[in-house]
Amino acid sequence: MFKHSIFLRIYAGLVVLVMLVALFGYLLVQIINYQRAQEYRESLTDGISYVIGEGIARQPTKQQKLDWISDASDLLELPIYYIDASKIELSRTEKKRLDEQKSVVRYDAETSIAYVVIGLKDDPKHFLYIKVDKIGERQMKALPIFILDYLIFYPGQEKQYVQKIQKYFSYPINIYDVKDLNLDSEQIGRLRQDQSVMLYKDNATIRGTTISIISPMPNNPMQALVLGPVPLFNWMPFQLSAGITLFSLFLLSLGVYGLILPLERKIRQVRYALNRMKSGDLSLRVPIEGSDEMANLASSYNNMSDHIQRLIEAQRELMRAVSHELRTPVARIRFGMEMLAEEDDYNYRIQQMEMIDRDIEALNTLIDEIMTYAKLEQGTPSLDFEEIILVDLLNQVAIETEALKTQKEIELIPPPTYVMVDAERRYLHRVVQNLVGNAVRYCNDKVRISGGIHPDGHAFICVEDDGAGIAEEDRARVFEAFARLDDSRTRASGGYGLGLSIVSRIAYWFGGTIQVDESPELGGARFVMQWPAKRFNENSKKKKSI
């Protein structure tokens, strides 16, 4: 069922596509956020790493450098190591960052510990190596101390040097008058006590939550150093969510186009074939791919084209054959009428009138055959199937044939009376009648009629004769309309070549087949028609119209 429905495949494909795009989007967000988090960590440490490096560079001796580093470690409550540069392997990107006086951050996701490497511009043989296993208020409030330690060497020029080092910080650093900071009395009191103040601010804009650190200037209590606002890391900022959403929609659009493209291609093939048919070209057939709805549509189109082409060819043949078949009786009728006009002998006139009457009857028979054939050939007829006792119908045809005084032996091998088949009685009678009539016309002495149901559930009727039979190369041609194997339309056997064509069309609409071969016992032709014996539930007596 699933593989036969192109629409179910499209729906299932959409579900799978959405799941794949969602998984891809999740992985893409994780990868992007990993890179963003790394850049965020580096941006937070770049500025303070530069200031720390400047502070160490001002120490004249190695021991003083080590003492400064020890004091910085105590202030941050983080271990800081002064190590040989050869002990740390750096990538090309990391070397470039250190050359630019930026920090290198290595983050271990399993232990949630960051390792910060800081280069020393006056001591290229050594690095500072900081193990950051915690970030809290203590560490945050220590940051302004390093900046103030840097600015203490530039009294009166603090603002100028703050602007100078601003390029190393990803967040703003400024010196403001305390009265311009909109602080409450408690916060101002803490500044006067030489304590730092941290301000948390929730922002509904893209920046989100931010932190600002305010520390009093050592020599000017009316001013304060302000770091921030520093935005906290946002795992899903608007730009990222919007970008991932748009990219996911783009992937979904491509996927939907990929799912719809085969359907569109198949529809385009059918539309092209229909346009060719409209122009009169019936030779084009649509390729059948798979077994879904479009394959069924292509198959229906091909069947329709075959049927239309067959109808057109049958119409042409019918017109040619009818015109030929009608000429003979019409010519005889015209000749008979002329003879009546010139003949005075009463008995002769009666004889001519009888001949004309036979010709008119022949015309009626021909017209009836043509109408039946055309009805069966033009499309699906209305067939009212019912349960028929097969032996009754075969026996009826045998009795009707014997009543014609054909001087031929009609042998009926009757099937059991319980054998019932589903068929349209009128058309099945016509099949048996045509086959028996054809056998009587060509047999020598004997015709045999039989029927039944095969083990595979197909009903059959069989008509055999002891005549000359039909050559193997001509067996398919006998079912063509107006076919005459001896090319004679005035032979003594009579007929118009439509009987077997009608049988073939009835077998087709019954959903069966008609075949001819050699009778193994009588030696003449054997015609066998097969069709499904049951077309509806055996307990249902309701007729089914197809």
From TrEMBL:
Entry EC number(s): 2.7.13.3
Pfam families recorded: HAMP (PF00672), HATPase_c (PF02518), HisKA (PF00512)
Membrane-spanning parts: 7-29, 240-261
Intracellular or extracellular location(s): Cell membrane
Record Gene3D superfamilies: 1.10.287.130, HAMP domain in histidine kinase (1.10.8.500), Histidine kinase-like ATPase, C-terminal domain (3.30.565.10)
GO cellular component, one term: plasma membrane
Lineage: Bacteria, Pseudomonadati, Pseudomonadota, Gammaproteobacteria, Moraxellales
Membrane topology: Multi-pass membrane protein
InterPro entries in the cross-refs: 2C_sensor_his_kinase, HAMP_dom, HATPase_C_sf, HATPase_dom, His_kinase_dom, HisK_dim/P_dom, HisK_dim/P_sf, Sig_transdc_His_kin-like_C
Record field: catalytic activity: ATP + protein L-histidine = ADP + protein N-phospho-L-histidine
Source organism superkingdom: Bacteria
Single GO molecular function: ATP binding
Listed name of the protein: histidine kinase
All residue ranges annotated as the HAMP domain in the record: 261-313
Alphabetical list of SMART domains matching this protein: HAMP (SM00304), HATPase_c (SM00387), HisKA (SM00388)
